[in-house]
Amino acid sequence: MTVEPKLYQVDTFAVGNRLLDPAQRSEQARADRSNAITSGHRACQGCGEVLGARYVLDAAMRATGGNMVAANATGCLEVFSTPYPETSWQLPWLHSLFGNAPAVASGMAAALRAQGRSDTRVVAQAGDGGTVDIGFGCLSGMFERNDDVLFVCYDNEGYMNTGVQRSGATPPAARTANTKALGPEPGNAFGQGKFVPLIAMAHEIPYVATATVADLRDLEAKVETAMGMSGARYLHVLVPCPLGWGSASEDTIKVARLARETGIFPVFEAERGRITAVSKIRRWQPVEEYLRIQRRYAHLFGEPRRDDIVARIQAQADHNIDRFGLLDDDPGYEQDQE
Amino acid sequence: MPVRSQIEGSQAVARAVARCRPQVVAAYPISPQTHIVESLADLVRTGELDPCEYLMVESELGAMSACIGSSAMGSRTYTATASQGLLFMAEALFNASGLGLPIVMTVANRAIGAPINIWNDHSDSMSMRDSGWVQLFASSNQEAVDLHVQAFRLAERLSLPVMVCMDGFVLTHAVEQVDVPEQDEVDAFLPPFTPRQQLDPAQPVSIGAMVGPEAFTEVKYLMHARQMQALDEIPRIAADFEAAFGRPAGGLVRPYRTDDAETVVVALGSQVGTIEVVVDQLRDEGHPVGLLDVTCFRPWPRDEVRRALAGAANVVVLEKAFAVGAGGIVGQNTRLALAGTPTVVHDVVAGLGGRPVTAAAVRGLLDDVLAGRVDPHRLHFLGLRTDLVDGQLRRDAASVPGPHAESMLREAGVIGSGSH
């Protein structure tokens, strides 16, 4: 994101929209935003997913002049937005199944090509279960065919709609309904799981980016970049889930920011399999700051404290910092590739 | 004038489908469906079928899912599959019908494993009989071609998905003389696709909302009501087809010499040709025997079946699939149609996993039925190798472990040294 603000507010990294050029203001600051997902939906208080979806879709609607359609996987986003006979969607929207949203989107894009309507664009969205697990085969197929689809994964690190079970995106040591804080290795196992943005990059698709709901203007900018390209594009957005993570509803942004500031969640952009930009950590924090405000990690800070497990998580964050060059003095991922 | 040429069933179907001008074809290869979709890929590549997008997807679930997206986007959409592929699509099949998307699909009927078997029977389509798709069964390659042209019109008229079932290898790979309708003929018969509902930025709608107990029954009732409308629409389309193309094809059921028949065979698919030959033989010998070819299995044409079988003392349902642990599938439906009549229904399973249904075998079966040697209260397996199954059942009773298929093949001397 290339924003040259005129003025920062004192002692923060925030900058008021009114201080920016109109072209650089958040889509959400515009009176004529599309409200693609409008009020009345039944998301939980503090839901990161609906916040992310709102910013993603309104930015995509801006970028396409409202000429787009959406495919949605089964999951929280689908359930809380369309309880019959109501809908929160103000764009053409199709929900088919849990594991097929990428293929449904491919079909939509093919239909549009056949109809000579390539100006109408396709966005598909799913949670981490629908993306990294049950929808992964279809996703990889959509990537390798380079179908003209922006696929957005709202990653809340588990199957929250079914009652907080482990997914392939659940981090180690996190407590879920089927990885409880029981036994000598409480919570989700170490050495498992996958980080799909890197797998997406291995397909050498035009664009892969990660983002969090802590940096919403950055998220919008990445959507805008993605919609300026054609072919398969992938956006992986970390969206805290107060219910599943056991964090306070008012802390959603804070938790997301700490995920980035600790290095737990690397924020970057990549084109054709090469990282092109990395969001540097502004104020480094130890992972304990991130973990302590989530009850899914409460077993690490009880009696006895599991400093050994916290240290393993810290090592993972340190690995991310090194691998992606997340600190200012770090040469960074790109140089590693030379 | 239509061109009559010697052509493989798959090639003929592919050309007929192409002349229906599908805008999107999404398919995943599986025998014995491959020649159909390969041929369509050629037609798209050469520009003979244009505009059309051919999607080479990563699985059958992907194929049907892409079809769902394409159809919801307002494009005429086609795919083909068989056997395991149809099962892998299962979740999306129910979704396509629930959403009322008029997708047309060929099923090149093939057995389902285990044991893995690539040859023909009807287990695949029958397993999806309650998926909400219309199911039409072709008795010949000519009918397969003609049913596809009718299927698009039916699907789009009712906004329902339609499965055209043709016997794998027996039809798909058989080379014979087939009239493939010309482009102008198909264009005159099949109007351009006007979707009932589609994704359109100018008029945004949400498709696929969650429905709870307060309205789910009503949604399903309406699905049923719409599929039952096909019972009226299919004969109309068949009549229009005959008027336009000068040959009969389609319809719900096709009775063959059933007038005054005391014994009637009920069958689906390519075996009806063989059965016709046997019926002719028996008629020549003075036996009042007939055949009811069921073209439309879903929706089930109960009244037409009942009418066609009324007066028969014996009905023999010869089917290439069965419900393990229950019995005949078409047989159960036939009993439903004959409820309250004294007609006796015999369930006979034949042609599983590619075993040929020969005229001699059918003749033998009918001789047994006519002589009262077939117990109507038991499921009968035509040509069952009792030497193999009896041996295995004996070993089972003696608690000898091991997979049935392997044990039986050892017994038959197909594998192993035979020493056990």
UniProtKB/TrEMBL annotation, chain A:
Keywords: Oxidoreductase, Pyruvate. This is Pyruvate ferredoxin oxidoreductase. CDD domains: TPP_PFOR_porB_like. It comes from the Bacteria. The keyword Transferase does not apply. GO terms for molecular function: magnesium ion binding; oxidoreductase activity; thiamine pyrophosphate binding. The keyword Oxidoreductase applies. Gene3D superfamilies: 3.40.50.970. Residues 74-237 form the Thiamine pyrophosphate enzyme TPP-binding domain.
